[in-house]
Design brief:
2 copies of one chain form a homodimer. By secondary structure, chain A is mainly alpha-helical. Helix content of chain A is 62%, strand content 5%. Chain A has 2 domains: 407 residues, no CATH class; 130 residues, STAS domain (Transcription Regulator spoIIAA, 2-Layer Sandwich). Chain A has 25 helices and 8 strands. In chain A, a hairpin with a 6-residue loop joins strand 3 and strand 4. Chains A, B: It is found in: Membrane.
Chain lengths: 582, 582
């Protein structure tokens, strides 16, 4: 039973489900459903898919996440960044608008679902950590800009496309003169209205005396108002005949049963994009889930979350959807609206199923410009260049990783951008550890402490060179330590003993072991003994397993002070104090 | 002048060149020349090039290394592993035996020369450190096996080829019945003789009363004896007509002036292989140079070595050669024979130029089986599986990196093998640091020291959780620490203060900073304060630059003991001693 419950969190919260929780969950579901209808249509459009795919991707996936997920308020479905990644991946293998395009979206969802599930079963949730915070922030910001730029064509009523800022500019700019002014007259006010709803409406409602909760709900319903007003206008004024692109006929049906195309050629083409989508989707989802859980002192199990998201994506693959993940905006709304258990998600799914079966005729006259406006306003909220300033102030390495991620995402598309960001941050980390800080230390008078002789007034002994190594030793920096020691032993130096202080050395790999052996041999030829001090337990256990310790010319001291007492000429009597910071 | 001398080491040793050095260098040059003639022919054969390319690659490159290199005894020219890599790289773009094949070899040498030079000018010598010692050892062992297997066809007198052990087996085994027995009757005894020369001749000569130096020189001349005997036999007995493949006509000329093919398509195809060849060649060369220099207390400048090898490869590109590097065997012979300055290399080049101009007719009847025998015996000396045992005993991570490198090199070829080895060792290192050792520490009674409560009998306080973090904090492990702390704070724990002891934290990157902020916020919500202790200077400088320290709920203590004195309930009075290792 414990095994089953581990994989089915619903068994935990389901058995104590109360009437009070039920009513809270129902209220949250109504609010989220209203918000999700236009959002789902819009993101499907962004992914290059028929509008109904967005609704379908919100029904069965949510139900499956309810069963397998661990977050109490995460809302799963299509999200902006994953929709953009989906468009980028499928555009390489099929033409937008064709059957092949929609089929490839199913394959992508299936691959992603399978990968997430496997990662969850093998407990590989930590793989998400390879995306550093600055890389994620830079990627989200650049993706937001790309998405907004890609939606401009719907607001202008022209044809344009592309996966990079340059391609979008090149296809869009020549069309500017062909702008459909009626479309623009819908799109621009919609954008303005939605920005105002976002920034100005809630404070205004509060001033008008509404409670914070109600003001918030009304503000969140803003997009629905834009949808209703522009749809009615388009229908009433016959704007379709004036060139306003509309959503048109959306099938009035529950999600269909679909089979993804599993041809080996397609799978091999979509494998890497699916991996990227899985990892980025997981990172987005887990960040939201952990943020919301922390507020209430709940805990999220990342490996079970992988299984939950994997099930959701497999569900999307078989019910006409496309890759999904836990979305930020919808989860926050869900949480704010009072959702207490994943059952709120299930009720949302029922609401959307009702909409799919009965309400789709209502969106026939919905202008695409309105959907584009909701996307633009939503994603511009993701754009945050402050990460550049903050990383610049804290660490140049992180800054360059963000800057490269943003520039490459805008210039070469989302897949190149995020892959490069990961590689650059790993490379910069390796470079940083390739030349570790090595400080010569001396005894702080009247204590047992040793400090950097360049920063502190300390005692030293010309025959004893004590070096504190501030990094684990491994292949990337193994040779550096050798060079570093030899560079400090100029011709004719009086040094007879070298002590390496290992208090900050957390590991010594095989390459570093061989370098230490080589260093010992080189020093021995010059009549100098090599010693170690303050070696940590796990490192010492390992060194003892090799023959290094028994062949070492010198000794291993428990503390640097013991080494000083044994090796310094003046023993424990204070020697000349070296001046600080020369 | 200092600037010029930095890039032209010849100006250093050249101005004090003495008559005594001259005579020593001359003796060494004669010995190395005799050894190099068959070796150069053999390695050209291994690279799939005409025999003379091996000689040409040994003349101008050596002269250029003499001018730009820093090692006093390194001998530059064709080597086994680089020859194999060359064959693997060019086979993908041209058919062996065609003009295009030889032209691509020149392009490869030029690309490699340009890369090495640029790396030297930008001081990127440390890039070689990304090849860990175990990966190099595994790669060399697997390459040795591949090379020996690829030469079997010459010993058997059949046609076969391929870049992996499987391909070699598949093409060779069906031909076994077609073995040319006369060729085998030359090849097998040659292999046996050369093995005996390597292992048994020198001790025998010593027992016969010869001095160690002379015995060594005679043993090194073994391959020349094999060449002379088999050439004379083939000529005298007319074995060519019995199907024995011979070297045939080699142009009797000084190295020609050649222009590499610089078409963009070829360059883009050869770019990655050239980078691999450059880095592997550099690693091999610098290892040899440093080993030999250490014996004499000399120093090698890795960045200037890059320039020296770069010049040598550029020279090879314009004089009918192919990629070269500093070879192990030839350099050791050069050093043993008494070479004192790089001038010995220059004299070797003159000797080889003389051979190219006048002696090539002598090798007309040299059987390819003999050359194959010299290669087989030379490379089997590189095969050393003990690295598997040694890494297994020391560290499983290193073991898996070696094992994968060997298996992938044999199964998928040299380029895949070494690339995978590098990636695997980087990945394993990142994984190792992704879940750092975090120990709960307590006060060792009557001292100021803190140790792991699971290993030592120490004092602890239920309201104070002290954790020593044994790793730098960066994006890969940032979230781990958060989880780690939260997992130790079970529901209802009496902890009021958490102290993170940072004595082994050498860096905190931006992702880790954000995780620490998130941890502080989460703890604050539970009414728990977060403190740091023993933060190193460089880490503290950085944290002060952010707002983390000022917003921190707790304090930063200079030592863990200070933290204990302030925060522990019992202050400095000893509390209950926790039992060791429960």
């Amino acid at each position: 039973m414990q095994g089953l419950r581990q994989y089915l969190p619903i068994l935990d919260w389901g058995r104590s489900y109360s009437r009070n929780q039920l009513s809270n969950d129902l209220v949250a579901a109504v609010i989220v459903t209203i918000m999700l209808i236009p959002q789902s249509l819009a993101y499907a459009l962004l992914a290059g898919l028929p509008a109904e795919a967005g609704i379908y991707a919100s029904i069965v996936p949510i139900l499956l996440y309810t069963v397998f997920g661990t977050s109490r308020s995460l809302a799963v479905g299509p999200v902006a960044v994953v929709s953009l990644l989906t468009a980028a991946a499928i555009s390489d293998v099929a033409q937008q608008g064709t059957m092949g395009y929609a089929a490839a979206a199913l394959t992508l969802a299936m691959l992603s679902g399978a990968m997430l599930t496997v990662m969850g079963l093998f407990r590989l949730g930590f793989l998400a950590n390879f995306l550093s915070h600055p890389v994620i922030a830079g990627f989200i910001t650049a993706s937001g800009l790309l998405i907004a730029a890609s939606q401009l064509r719907h607001v202008l009523g022209v044809e344009a496309g592309g996966g990079t800022l340059i391609e979008l500019g090149e296809t869009l700019l020549p069309q500017l003169s062909a702008t459909n002014l009626v479309t623009l007259a819908i799109g621009l006010p919609a954008i303005g209205f939605l920005f105002w709803v976002r920034k100005g409406l809630k404070p205004m409602l509060r001033r008008a005396g509404l409670g914070p909760r109600l003001a918030d709900v009304i503000a969140k319903a803003g997009p629905v108002a834009a949808v209703v007003v522009t749809t009615v206008l388009t229908w009433g004024l016959g704007l379709e005949e004036r060139g306003v692109a509309i959503v048109g006929a959306v099938p009035q049906a529950l999600p269909p049963f679909t089979l993804p195309d599993l041809s080996p050629a397609l799978i091999s083409q979509l494998f890497v994009p699916a991996l990227l989508i899985s990892i980025i989707g997981f990172v987005e989802s887990i960040s939201v889930a952990q943020t919301l859980a922390a507020r209430k002192g709940q805990r999220i199990n990342p490996d079970q979350e992988l299984i939950g998201l994997g099930a959701a994506n497999l569900g999307a693959a078989f019910t006409g959807g496309y890759p999904v993940t836990g979305g930020f905006a919808r989860s926050v709304v869900n949480d704010d609206a009072g959702a207490e258990t994943p059952a709120a998600g299930a009720f949302t799914a029922l609401g959307l199923a009702f909409a799919a079966a009965f309400l789709t005729p209502l969106v026939y006259f919905l202008p695409k410009a309105t959907l584009a406006a909701t996307i633009i306003v939503a994603v511009l909220g993701l754009v945050d260049f402050s990460i550049l300033r903050r990383t610049w102030a804290y660490s140049r390495g992180d800054f360059w990783a963000v800057a490269a991620t943003i520039a490459l995402t805008l210039g070469f598309g989302v897949e190149t951008g995020v892959s490069a960001g990961v590689l650059i941050s790993i490379l910069l980390h390796l470079l940083k550890t390739s030349k570790p800080h090595v400080a010569e230390v001396g005894l702080v008078p009247d204590t047992h402490h040793f400090r950097n002789i360049d920063r502190h007034p300390v005692q030293s002994d010309p025959t004893l060179l004590s070096l504190r190594v501030d990094e684990s030793l491994y292949f990337v920096n193994a040779r550096f330590l050798e060079d570093c020691v030899m560079n400090r032993l100029a011709e004719g130096s009086p040094v007879e003993n070298v002590v390496l202080m290992f208090s900050a050395v957390n590991a010594v790999d095989f390459s570093a072991l061989e370098s230490l052996e080589a260093l010992d041999a080189t020093l021995r030829r010059r009549g100098i003994k090599l010693h170690l001090s303050e070696v940590k337990g796990p490192v010492m256990d390992r060194l003892k397993g090799s023959h290094f310790i028994e062949h070492l010319s010198g000794e291993v001291f428990l503390s640097q002070y013991d080494a000083w007492c044994r090796l310094a000429r003046q023993g424990q009597t204070p020697g000349p104090v070296k001046a600080a910071a020369e």
